[in-house]
Design goal:
four-stranded mixed β-sheet; seven-stranded mixed β-sheet; alpha/beta; single chain; about 30% helix; 11 strands
C-alpha cells in the first residue's frame, strides 16, 4: 500500500465520554499507518478530558473553551499537517479500512473529496441494517447540481463519512464559528463541488451513532428552525461568493 499521503483525522469532542474512547481507538486502528490523530475537546464538563489525556503521545490534543463544532474544526485544521483531512465526530466510529479505501482517489489532484456511506448503530454500539444516506452517494463533477439545486441536490453523508483534500480545506477555512456551532459539514459539502471532483467508496466505512443526545437534537423546535435558517442563508451566501471567485453563476 502506497502511504505517501499524510492523513489527519480530527476528532471534535464535546461531552461524549461514553463514546469518545471508541472513536479515538477507531482512528488509531486504521490499516493505513501514515496518519495523525488530533482530538479537540470543546469545553467538555464530563470525563472526556481525562480520557483524552490517557492517550499520551499517541494523539495530538487540545482542550479549549466551548465555542461550537466549527471552532473545534478550525482549531484542528490549524494544528494539522495532513494532505487529506477527515473530521470524525466523537460519537461515531471509523471502520479500519476507511483511509485505505479512499486514499487512492487523491492521487488525482482534481479530487477535492472522497465520501462513503455510514452504517447506523445505536447508543450501545448495535449496528442496524440502515445506511446513511439511504440513496446512493453521488460522485463526479457536481457543479451544475449545486448551482441549480444547492447542497441537498446531491447525496452526501454526515461528518464522519468524508475525506477532504488539503487544498480544498485551505481554500474555505476558517469556518464562521458563530454560524456553524453545529453542522459545519453542510458548509463543506455545499462548497466542495466548486473546487474539484467528488469520488465515492461504495461500502460503508464508518458507523453513525444515534443515541438521542446528538447535538443537533438538543434544541427546541423553534430554536432548531431559527438555527437552520441561519445555517442555510449563510451557506447560500457562501456558495454565491465562492462561485463568483471561480466565475460560476449560482442560482440563489
Amino acid at each position: 500500500m502506497n502511504e505517501s499521503f499524510l492523513v489527519s483525522i480530527i476528532i471534535s469532542s464535546f461531552n461524549y465520554d461514553g463514546y469518545l474512547r471508541t472513536a479515538i481507538d477507531s482512528a488509531l486502528r486504521q490499516s493505513y499507518k501514515n496518519k495523525e490523530v488530533i482530538v479537540v475537546d470543546d469545553g467538555s464538563t464530563d470525563n472526556s478530558c481525562e480520557i483524552i489525556e490517557g492517550y499520551g503521545n499517541q494523539i495530538l490534543a487540545v482542550l479549549k473553551n466551548n465555542r461550537g463544532q466549527a471552532s473545534a474544526f478550525n482549531t484542528g485544521v490549524a494544528m494539522s499537517s495532513g494532505d487529506v483531512i477527515i473530521f470524525l465526530d466523537s460519537d461515531d466510529v471509523l471502520l479500519p479500512t476507511a483511509i485505505e479505501k479512499s486514499i487512492r482517489f487523491f492521487k488525482d489532484p482534481t479530487v477535492a473529496k472522497v465520501h462513503w456511506p455510514m452504517a447506523v448503530n445505536n447508543e450501545y454500539g448495535k449496528q442496524s441494517k440502515r445506511i446513511v444516506p439511504s440513496r446512493r452517494l453521488d460522485e463526479g463533477n457536481l457543479i451544475d447540481v449545486v448551482r441549480h439545486v444547492g447542497p441537498n441536490g446531491y447525496a452526501w453523508p454526515p461528518t464522519s463519512g468524508n475525506a477532504w483534500s488539503r487544498s480544498f480545506i485551505d481554500s474555505v477555512f476558517p469556518i464562521q464559528e458563530d454560524i456553524y456551532k453545529i453542522c459545519p459539514d453542510l458548509y463543506l459539502s455545499a462548497l466542495v463541488p466548486l473546487y474539484g471532483l467528488i469520488k465515492r467508496v461504495s461500502e460503508p466505512q464508518a458507523l453513525w451513532r444515534i443515541h438521542g443526545k446528538n447535538a443537533s437534537w438538543q434544541q427546541s423546535l423553534d430554536e432548531r428552525v431559527q438555527c437552520q435558517v441561519r445555517l442555510w442563508e449563510h451557506c447560500f451566501q457562501s456558495l454565491e461568493s465562492c462561485g463568483k471567485e471561480k466565475g460560476i453563476q449560482i442560482d440563489l
